[in-house]
C-alpha cells in the first residue's frame, strides 16, 4: 500500500491553510482519571489529520470533545475560529463517522443519509436528489430503498460517510472507522477515503490505533500516550525520525542498541555502539530518551539496513553477525541477526531484526550462517 | 449440515415436549371444551349435546353484550394507554439514568407489588379510594372537601387506576428491555446530525422502543379485557365487564353453552384487535438490531 502521488502536493497546499481546529490546553478529568493532560493542537483547513495511539491514550476522548459529546475540564476548543464552549453537539459544524457506524436500523439507506436534512429548506425532490448524489459519491448508487439492517460492514460504513458528508460539515470526525472491516476491505477503504477527502476538501480528523492506517492516509499525525501528544509530524518524519523510543516502538519496528556518547559538535553527535563502532549522528536524527530508558541508545528500522554476503563490501559501512532466526513472509523475509560485539564498549553480542524484500534472484539465507549487515549513519536515530 | 440440523431439531422437540404437554393439558383442552360447549344446546340446568349456532346468534343480537363488550374494550384501552404512558418514563429512567450496577436493584424494587396477592392489592385500592377511604378522609381532615369525592370509586376511573397500578411492572419491563437494546451511539448520531435531545428522542429512541411499547400494550390490554376481580370489587358490581357477564351466564344462570359462546366471541374480538394492532406496528417490529 502506497500513498497516492498527490499526497505531497496536498500536504504542501494545506500547510499554509487557516487553522480549522485549535485545542488550547485541553484537559479532561473523569473523577480521579486524567484522560487529557493539556492538549495543544492546531489542525488546518483541508488537512487529513490522525490521532494515533494505543487504547486508553485519550485519542477518542479528544475526538469526542471536538464533536461536543464530552465537556472539557479546562482549556478551549475552537472550530473555524469559534470557541465551542457551551455549544452542543447538534450545533457544531462537525459530523462524525462512529466506530459502530450507528446506522439507524429502523430507517432505509436513503432515510439514514437524509436524516440530517430535516430542517434543510430545500424541497423534498431536491433533498432526494442530494441523497442520491451522496450515495453515488460513496459508491452506493441505487441502494436508497434498501433496509439498513441488511447491509454489510463496508456498506454501513459508506452509508455513515454519506450521511455525514451530505451535511457539508467543516470537519469530519472518524472514530476508528476501518477497525471493523477485514484487511482487504480496509486497504480499499483507505484509498477511497483519501480520494473522497481530496474531492470534498473537508478537514478529516481520524482516530486510529493502527499505525499503518495513519501513515497511509494522513497529512499529519499526532501520536498520543496517556493523554498527551508525544509527537506531531508528517508520516515520513514520524517514521524516519521518531522523537522518542516510545514513538519509535509504536510506529513500526525499531532495533535499539546501547550507545555511549563520545562527543558533540554543532551538527553531529559522536557515539560508540556495539557492532557499529564509532559513528557521527547528524543533529536532525538526535532525539530524547524517555524517562524509563537505560541510558542513551541508537535505533534503526529493519528495512533501513540490509543483509549482504560475508566479505562483500559496498558504499556503506558493515557490521558482522550470525543469523539467529529467519521468518519468511512471502514478499519480505525477516532475519534476526546477532551482531558481534566487536568494536563495542562491553563486547556483548546484540540481536537486531533486518527486513529484506524478496526480489527475484535473491536467496533466502539460512539460520546459523554468518552475514554482514550493511548500514549508513544517516539511517540511525540517537536517543539520549 | 443437514443431519446436524435434524438432530438439533429432535433435541429441540425433546426439550419442549414436557411444557408442551402441560400447555395442551391445562390450556388447549379447556379451550377446546369451551369451544365445543359454545355449539351445544342449553337444556336449562343440563347441556344437550346437539350442534347449534343459536348461542352465537343470541350473543350477537344481545344489546347488553354489545354494551358490556364495548365497555370492556374501552376500559382495557384506557388502562393500556394510562399504563404504557406512565410506564415509559419509568423504563426510560431505569435504562438511561440509573447506573448499570444499580439496575438490578431497581428492577427488584419494581417487582415489590407482586409480593402481595392481586386480590389484596385490589382491596387496598378500595380502602384508598373508598367513601371513608384514605383519600377522602385525608382531604376531609385537611378541610379541602366537605363531601366525599365520588368520582374515584365504583366507576371506570377507579378501575383504570387500580388496573394501571396492577399491570405497571408488566409494561415497564418490555419497554425497559427495548430501551436497553438501543445502541447508545445511535442517540449520539442523532445529536451529531443536528437534532436536539427532544427530536432525537422522537426520531430515534421512540421508534426503536416501539417493539417494547407494542409488547407492553398487548401484555396489558389482553388480560385487562378479561379482568374479573377489579370490576367486581372496585366497580362495585355496578359496571360489569365481559368476564363478569360470562361468569353470570356460566354460574348464576347456569347457561354454559351461552356463556361459552360469549367467551369465544370475546376471545375472537380480542384476537382480532391484537392482530390489527400488530399490523399497524409492523414497520417498527420488523427492525432487528
Automatic annotation (TrEMBL), chain A:
InterPro entries recorded: AAA+_ATPase (IPR003593), ABC_SmlMolc_Importer (IPR050093), ABC_transporter-like_ATP-bd (IPR003439), ABC_transporter-like_CS (IPR017871), Mo/tungstate-bd_C_term_dom (IPR008995), P-loop_NTPase (IPR027417), Transp-assoc_OB_typ2 (IPR013611)
Keywords linked to the UniProt accession: ATP-binding, Nucleotide-binding, Transport
GO terms under biological process: putrescine transport
Annotated ABC transporter domain residues: 21-251
Gene3D superfamilies: 2.40.50.100, P-loop containing nucleotide triphosphate hydrolases
GO molecular function terms listed in the Swiss-Prot or TrEMBL record: ATP binding; ATP hydrolysis activity; transmembrane transporter activity
One GO location term (cellular component): ATP-binding cassette (ABC) transporter complex
Keyword Zinc-finger (UniProt): no
PROSITE patterns attached to this UniProt entry: ABC_TRANSPORTER_1 (PS00211), ABC_TRANSPORTER_2 (PS50893)
Pfam families: ABC_tran, TOBE_2
Superkingdom of source: Bacteria
Protein name: Polyamine-transporting ATPase
Organism, scientific name: Paracoccus kondratievae
TrEMBL record, chain B:
Subcellular location: Cell membrane
Principal localisation: membrane
Membrane topology field: Multi-pass membrane protein
One GO cellular component term: plasma membrane
Record's keyword terms, sorted: Cell membrane, Membrane, Transmembrane, Transmembrane helix, Transport
Residue intervals passing through the bilayer: 20-40, 68-94, 106-131, 151-179, 200-222, 258-280
Species of origin: Paracoccus kondratievae
Protein name: Spermidine/putrescine ABC transporter permease
Amino acid at each position: 500500500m502506497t500513498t497516492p502521488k498527490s499526497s505531497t502536493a496536498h500536504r504542501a497546499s494545506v500547510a499554509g491553510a487557516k487553522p480549522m481546529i485549535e485545542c488550547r490546553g485541553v484537559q479532561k478529568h473523569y473523577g480521579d482519571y486524567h484522560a487529557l493532560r493539556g492538549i495543544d493542537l492546531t489542525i488546518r483547513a483541508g488537512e487529513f489529520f490522525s490521532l494515533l495511539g494505543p487504547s486508553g491514550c485519550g485519542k477518542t476522548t479528544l475526538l469526542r470533545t471536538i464533536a461536543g459529546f464530552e465537556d472539557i475540564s479546562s482549556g478551549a476548543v475552537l472550530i473555524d475560529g469559534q470557541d465551542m464552549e457551551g455549544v452542543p453537539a447538534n450545533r457544531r459544524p462537525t459530523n462524525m463517522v462512529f466506530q459502530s457506524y450507528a446506522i439507524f436500523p429502523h430507517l432505509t439507506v436513503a432515510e439514514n443519509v437524509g436524516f440530517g436534512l430535516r430542517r434543510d429548506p430545500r424541497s423534498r425532490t431536491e433533498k432526494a436528489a442530494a441523497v442520491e448524489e451522496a450515495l453515488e459519491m460513496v459508491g452506493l448508487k441505487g441502494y436508497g430503498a434498501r433496509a439498513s439492517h441488511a447491509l454489510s460492514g463496508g456498506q454501513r460504513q459508506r452509508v455513515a460517510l454519506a450521511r455525514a458528508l451530505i451535511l457539508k460539515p467543516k470537519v469530519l470526525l472518524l472514530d476508528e472507522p476501518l477497525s471493523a472491516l477485514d484487511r482487504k476491505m480496509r486497504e480499499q477503504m483507505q484509498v477511497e477515503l483519501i480520494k473522497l477527502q481530496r474531492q470534498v476538501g473537508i478537514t478529516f480528523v481520524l482516530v486510529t490505533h493502527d499505525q499503518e492506517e495513519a501513515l497511509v492516509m494522513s497529512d499529519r499525525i499526532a501520536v498520543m500516550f496517556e493523554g498527551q501528544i508525544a509527537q506531531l509530524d508528517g508520516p515520513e518524519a514520524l517514521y524516519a525520525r521518531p522523537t522518542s523510543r516510545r514513538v519509535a516502538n509504536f510506529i513500526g519496528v525499531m532495533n535499539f542498541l546501547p550507545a555511549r556518547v563520545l562527543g558533540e559538535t554543532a551538527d553531529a553527535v559522536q557515539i560508540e555502539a556495539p557492532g557499529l563502532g564509532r559513528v557521527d549522528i547528524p543533529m536532525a536524527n538526535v532525539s530524547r530518551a524517555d524517562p524509563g530508558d537505560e541510558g542513551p541508545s541508537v535505533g534503526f528500522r529493519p528495512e533501513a539496513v540490509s543483509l549482504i554476503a560475508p566479505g562483500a563490501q559496498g558504499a556503506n559501512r558493515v557490521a558482522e553477525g550470525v543469523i539467529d532466526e529467519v521468518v519468511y513472509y512471502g514478499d519480505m523475509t525477516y532475519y534476526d541477526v546477532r551482531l558481534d560485539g566487536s568494536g563495542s564498549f562491553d563486547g556483548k553480542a546484540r540481536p537486531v531484526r533486518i527486513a529484506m524484500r524478496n526480489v527475484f534472484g535473491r536467496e533466502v539465507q539460512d539460520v546459523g550462517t554468518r552475514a554482514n549487515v550493511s548500514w549508513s549513519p544517516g539511517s540511525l536515530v540517537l536517543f539520549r | 449440515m443437514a443431519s446436524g440440523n435434524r438432530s438439533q431439531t429432535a433435541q429441540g422437540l425433546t426439550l419442549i415436549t414436557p411444557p408442551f404437554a402441560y400447555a395442551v393439558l391445562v390450556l388447549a383442552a379447556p379451550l377446546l371444551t369451551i369451544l365445543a360447549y359454545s355449539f351445544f344446546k342449553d337444556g336449562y340446568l343440563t347441556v344437550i349435546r346437539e350442534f347449534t349456532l343459536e348461542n352465537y346468534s343470541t350473543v350477537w343480537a344481545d344489546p347488553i353484550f354489545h354494551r358490556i363488550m364495548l365497555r370492556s374494550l374501552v376500559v382495557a384501552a384506557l388502562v393500556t394507554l394510562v399504563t404504557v404512558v406512565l410506564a415509559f418514563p419509568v423504563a426510560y429512567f431505569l435504562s438511561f439514568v440509573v447506573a448499570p450496577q444499580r439496575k438490578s436493584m431497581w428492577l427488584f424494587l419494581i417487582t415489590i407489588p407482586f409480593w402481595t396477592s392481586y386480590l389484596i392489592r385490589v382491596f387496598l385500592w378500595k380502602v384508598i379510594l373508598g367513601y371513608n377511604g384514605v383519600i377522602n378522609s385525608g382531604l376531609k381532615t385537611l378541610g379541602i372537601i366537605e363531601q366525599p369525592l365520588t368520582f374515584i370509586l365504583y366507576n371506570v376511573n377507579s378501575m383504570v387506576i387500580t388496573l394501571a397500578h396492577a399491570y405497571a411492572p408488566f409494561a415497564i419491563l418490555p419497554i425497559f428491555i427495548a430501551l436497553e437494546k438501543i445502541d447508545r451511539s445511535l442517540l449520539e448520531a442523532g445529536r451529531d446530525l443536528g437534532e436536539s435531545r427532544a427530536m432525537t428522542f422522537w426520531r430515534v429512541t421512540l421508534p426503536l422502543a416501539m417493539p417494547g411499547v407494542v409488547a407492553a400494550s398487548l401484555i396489558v390490554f389482553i388480560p385487562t379485557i378479561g379482568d374479573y376481580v377489579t370490576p367486581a370489587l372496585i366497580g362495585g358490581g355496578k359496571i360489569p365487564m365481559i368476564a363478569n357477564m360470562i361468569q353470570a351466564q356460566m354460574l348464576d344462570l347456569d347457561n354454559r353453552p351461552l356463556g361459552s359462546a360469549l367467551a369465544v366471541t370475546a376471545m375472537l374480538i380480542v384476537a382480532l384487535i391484537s392482530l390489527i394492532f400488530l399490523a399497524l406496528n409492523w414497520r417498527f417490529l420488523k427492525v432487528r438490531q
